[in-house]
Amino acid sequence: MTNYKKLFLLSFTIICSVQMIQSDYIAAVVEYEPINATFPNETVEANLAQYVYFIEHAQLSSVQIIVFPEYGLTGLADNASEYAIEIPNPTDNSIHFEHFWLEKLSNAAVAHSMYVVVNLLEKEKAEKNILYYNTDVVFDTKGRIVAKHRKVNLFQEPLLTPGNSEQNKNIFTTDFGVTFGVFTCADISFYNPAKTILSNPAVTDIIFPTAWGSFLPFFHSLSIQNAYTLASKVNLLAANLNSVENGMSGSGIYAADGTIISYYLSGKPGSKMQIATVKTTPTSETTVFDTYGYEPLNNTISTLDNLNTNRYFDSEKYVFKRLNISQLNIKEEVCHRSFCCAFSINVSSTALNASEIYQIMAYRGPARIGELRNLKFCSLVACKSSDLNTCGDRNIKLTSKLESVLVETNVLDEREGFYLPISLTGDLVPVFNTSYNSTAYKGARIYKYLASNIKQENILAFGIVANDGITLSFNSMLIVGILVLKHLLR
Ligand SMILES: *[C@@H]1O[C@H](CO)[C@@H](O)[C@H](O)[C@H]1NC(C)=O
Ligand SMILES: *[C@@H]1O[C@H](CO)[C@@H](O)[C@H](O)[C@H]1NC(C)=O
Ligand SMILES: *[C@@H]1O[C@H](CO)[C@@H](O)[C@H](O)[C@H]1NC(C)=O
Ligand SMILES: *[C@@H]1O[C@H](CO)[C@@H](O)[C@H](O)[C@H]1NC(C)=O
Ligand SMILES: *[C@@H]1O[C@H](CO)[C@@H](O)[C@H](O)[C@H]1NC(C)=O
Ligand SMILES: *[C@@H]1O[C@H](CO)[C@@H](O)[C@H](O)[C@H]1NC(C)=O
Ligand SMILES: *[C@@H]1O[C@H](CO)[C@@H](O)[C@H](O)[C@H]1NC(C)=O
Ligand SMILES: *[C@@H]1O[C@H](CO)[C@@H](O)[C@H](O)[C@H]1NC(C)=O
Ligand SMILES: *[C@@H]1O[C@H](CO)[C@@H](O)[C@H](O)[C@H]1NC(C)=O
Fold first, then answer.
1. Which N-terminal stretch is annotated as signal sequence (predicted)?
2. Substitution candidate for ligand 2 out of 32, 33, 35, 36 with most atoms within 8 A of CB
3. Which of 16, 178, 264, 411 has a CA positioned 20 to 30 A from the CA of residue 477?
């Protein structure tokens, strides 16, 4: 290497390390209920005006980055062609945009000195036709687009084209020294990009605009957000669309150590901004100091009755084992197709009703939910009756008190394994103060999810979910074929 090149590298390193000084930052996530006007253009413009209103209020609390949800500007538009615009790539440093929606967002970012994250429908002229994407866009405080993420894992969006992870420029470093990754909605439950994005060790914080319609009991909004933070040990800023008739609510700010800094879930239509300080060296002492919206921040849930919740629970396909809770210290295992989970559960002797039913269950097999392909899950579930179909459903309030639950699974250490620890209470929030670890051991991996010292929560579900959403390429199918053949010939 010539001296000249060395010098160049050196100065580059210095610039980088100056930028790498991290500081705590103030974030806002907006759960947003979109306005629907008569024409698509008017819908987006009405929502843009609301966004600017939120940005102005966020500035009063010195917010440095604000996150709006997926489909927030367009509403749940099913015909992308009526809404989609061209969006320049992050490499283009320009702050002048052809489309005035982008211009408006860029100006708001500059005027309020704030990183602004929005989701839009994007169009791109291809050779023969026009392609449409579900796209997150990040503006920096200078008004430039610094990141763009085209949703990789679409969920019932037939007119859209999935983004390509290699082409997505969805990682950026802010002027306050934090490196963020961005992905959207169903992406959070797929190895690519939810785990691959963390292969860049600089990424300590994830931005998650979503329009998440919850499914009981294993795919509830706050539950999945909390699970991702526990599994990935990063901070998470999750902004959900508010559409209670579609089961969409549940946004939050999560710290890398598993603390839920702030959350919001409601059955009442409306928008809600949560603001909190996020520590870059996480501790449990985090401040939640302001909010702006239709209700005061309360870390709470209100009028949940109106929050529609879909259900995805094929009880006839799962293996169940009823727990004998009068044993108080329970150790049981349940398996389905060689996927096994061991549970250790302690029940309080002072609050015990032996007629109440808790089951443990396991499943491994094909999924029939959106574009998920193969699922594994095992969980403790509360049941209303001996009818297994009532397990993990709404409005179950068992009086028997669980003091601690530990679930453990020991699986092959696959490169693309992506396991999430999920928990849900009767109030549709995660169980607080849980701990989740994974350890590699002789080609296997052991996942442990623990809630000790459970307070008053009435647990609906507590377990581990994995989505083996691997698209088999022709090559890997060939390899699998050869392996199967070898096995048969043995
Ligand atoms: C929106 O589109 C409609 C129909 O194309 C048009 O009549 C109307 O003028 C547009 N509104 C604005 C504010 O541009
Ligand atoms: C918005 O309103 C238009 C016109 O009233 C209607 O056709 C469309 O379905 C609505 N979209 C949503 C997402 O509610
Ligand atoms: C979507 O909207 C465009 C433009 O209004 C229209 O030509 C097209 O038929 C629509 N597509 C669908 C699937 O509704
Ligand atoms: C939280 O919400 C409940 C129900 O809406 C209300 O009664 C209570 O006063 C709120 N608490 C705070 C601290 O705002
Ligand atoms: C449940 O456990 C209790 C205490 O160990 C025992 O007395 C009882 O027989 C068990 N019930 C069943 C159905 O196994
Ligand atoms: C359950 O109770 C037993 C006996 O008191 C104790 O050894 C064990 O650690 C407890 N389990 C958990 C998960 O806290
Ligand atoms: C115990 O649970 C059963 C089944 O849920 C219920 O019918 C019964 O009323 C409960 N008993 C008490 C004392 O709460
Ligand atoms: C979680 O743990 C922290 C620290 O031990 C404690 O201050 C907090 O009250 C706990 N939260 C809940 C909901 O149990
Ligand atoms: C995970 O590891 C931490 C630190 O070693 C420990 O405190 C915690 O109990 C472990 N959690 C589980 C579920 O094993």
1. 1-23
2. 36
3. 411
